[in-house]
Write a structure and sequence with these properties.
single chain; 568 residues; mainly alpha; elongated; ARM-type_fold; AP-5 complex subunit zeta-1; TPR_AP5Z1_C; AP5Z1_ARM
């Protein structure tokens, strides 16, 4: 007990002495014993569970916090670890001393973390702080992390190589109803954030101890002039003609002005991303052609894993209205991401899985989002990425009946978009003219193959949509008939159109094969329709050959049930 009291008095005197010492008064973090004293006093308060001890130490710790925050702009040492230790004290004993930790936490984010997010020690301590206090922060301060998610993404982007496990644990705290939509584009552009931060470091010096906001304020006018000069003359301001000594002699990279928007610290809602412009596309392509840094490589691997966490939480916890609002943004950004082949493949795979999973859970979203879906179908031939997105949307339209039986008007409009896509293909002979393309390049061959694959999905979607909404059957027969009569070089499209025309002559079989695999909510499943994915577990009587009803004599078919269902 005396040893404890002696230790208590020693650490408390250390705090009091620090407040009177002129050498540390303006820079408390410069005294290494100060953080140790705060930590020991915190531990003693928790061990003794004494409100009296907490009340005695709180005024001293609070003074240190205020002085440390006030000295941040002049401090030559890191204050992050000291302030995090004090914040932990506030969270543990705030109710005892009636201290609301919310203003202190926000002050730390704005004044300290914005300057020290690039410090690897502070970054690791920050993530551990968020993980340890995850439940408490989400319960008592639910808007804190969502408000500062851009700043936390900068921490993640700069330190992702070392702290991947901690990042994955802390990341769910960034999601809330207020940040769910705006977080997605920022997360998707995490590699571009790395490029922006590396450019700021190259142009303005180390990021540790400097506020990005002040760097932006000082360099933005000059960088904007550099960009304008290159846009109009083809050279940068620093070029000074053709006698540039080296590429590194340029103090400002012309790409920087378009990156400034992503260097913000707080969530201010959804804003137009500047790299959607053609100029930004060109600049990003130049960045992709340069050698990747280790930090960028790490973020290219980390971002798909963060998207996995984001989408799993979205499907599990987020309400359907927010998910519905996310889908148009997701579709518009599908073809606008960092142009690395492996990264693009991993991200596109996850985006498509989320889109299809969402439509599987909420088929009515197809009707609600018919306008953005039709816009994406209209862009099907613009690029391979947009072709793949249009292809998957065609599948979803056909599989879920354009939103369900209660959305006939929307289904008709979607059907008309599919018709337009099909007729555009036929009229422009995109798949025809085999003789003229006999000597075409591999690129042309790939393009025709991709378009043939898209047309197979369009033809299937037209047939399935007409099967679901039978008033569309006459128009579907006309559309498929034109494909069957046209000179299409790809036999797959022609064969599929002919097969569907044959199926439409027997509505019962057509409904079983092309009808929805499951009924829409509130709509009974049609007689004779089964889920063919469960075909191997069905009995013979479940197979919808009711067309044999009221037929006398042996069945007229010459196949066995084993020809239909695969053996296990």
């Amino acid at each position: 007990m005396p040893e404890r009291d002696a230790g208590w008095d020693f650490y408390l005197r250390t705090l009091s002495t620090s407040a009177r010492d002129s050498n540390t008064a303006n820079d408390p973090a410069s005294d290494p014993s100060l953080i140790q004293s705060v930590k020991k006093l915190h531990q003693l308060c928790k061990a003794e569970n004494s409100e009296d001890l907490v009340a005695r130490v709180y005024p001293q710790i609070n003074k240190i916090f205020q002085r440390a925050v006030a000295s941040l702009s002049q401090s030559q040492t890191s204050n992050g670890l000291l302030l995090l230790e004090i914040l932990q004290f506030y969270l543990d004993f705030g109710e005892v001393v009636l201290h609301d930790a919310d203003p202190s936490l926000r002050t730390f984010f704005r004044s300290c973390l914005s300057r020290e997010f690039a410090d690897p020690v502070v970054a690791e301590a920050m993530l551990e702080f968020l993980i340890i206090n995850k439940k408490r922060i989400l319960t008592s301060f639910p808007n804190l992390m969502p408000q500062f998610f851009p700043l936390l993404l900068k921490l993640i982007a700069w330190n992702g190589e070392r702290l991947e496990k901690q990042i994955l644990k802390a990341f769910p705290g960034l999601m809330s109803p207020g940040s769910f939509i705006s977080l997605f584009p920022s997360l998707l552009d995490l590699p571009i954030l790395v490029v922006a931060l590396e450019k700021v470091e190259k142009n303005s010096g180390p990021l540790i101890g400097s506020s990005i906001a002040s760097i932006q304020k000082n360099t933005a006018p000059k960088m904007l002039l550099a960009l304008m000069d290159e846009a109009y003359t083809g050279s940068t301001i620093e070029d000074g003609g053709g006698d540039s000594e080296s590429e590194d002699s340029s103090a400002i990279d012309v790409a920087d002005p378009l990156f400034l928007e992503i260097l913000k610290d707080e969530n201010d809602g959804i804003t137009e991303r500047p790299w959607s412009s053609p100029l930004m596309t060109t600049i990003l392509q130049t960045a992709v052609n340069n050698t990747y840094s280790d930090r960028l490589k790490a973020v290219l691997r980390l971002t798909p894993r963060l998207l996995d966490v984001y989408f799993s939480i979205a499907l599990r916890d987020v309400n359907d209205s927010l998910i519905c609002a996310l889908l148009p943004l997701l579709m518009s950004r599908f073809a606008t991401i960092f142009a690395d082949k492996i990264f693009s493949y991993e991200v596109h795979k996850r985006l498509l899985e989320f889109i299809l999973s969402t439509f599987q859970r909420y088929p009515n979203f197809i009707a609600l989002l018919k306008k953005p879906i039709m816009d994406r179908l209209g862009e099907a031939y613009d690029s391979p990425d947009k072709t793949e997105l249009a292809l998957q949307l065609c599948w979803a339209i056909g599989e879920h009946g354009g939103g369900g039986g209660s959305h006939k008007d929307e289904a008709r409009e979607l059907f008309e978009s599919l018709e337009l896509l099909l007729y555009e293909n036929l009229s422009s002979s995109r798949l025809g003219m085999a003789q003229e393309l006999s000597l075409s390049s591999d690129k042309d061959t790939y393009r025709r193959s991709s378009q043939s694959r898209l047309m197979c999905f369009v033809v299937t979607a037209i047939a399935k949509l007409a099967t679901y909404h039978r008033e569309l059957l006459p128009r579907a027969r006309v559309a498929l008939g034109k494909v069957a009569r046209s000179r299409i070089s790809d036999m797959r499209v022609w064969s599929r159109a002919c097969d569907f025309l044959g199926l439409m002559k027997d509505p019962a079989i057509c409904s079983s094969i092309l009808g929805p695999s499951r009924s829409s909510p509130g709509t009974p499943q049609k007689i004779g329709s089964i889920n063919w994915n469960e075909g191997a577990t069905k009995m013979t009587a479940h197979i919808p050959f009711y067309i044999l009803g009221e037929q006398e004599g042996p069945p007229f078919h010459d196949f066995s049930i084993s020809d239909i269902l695969s053996r296990r």
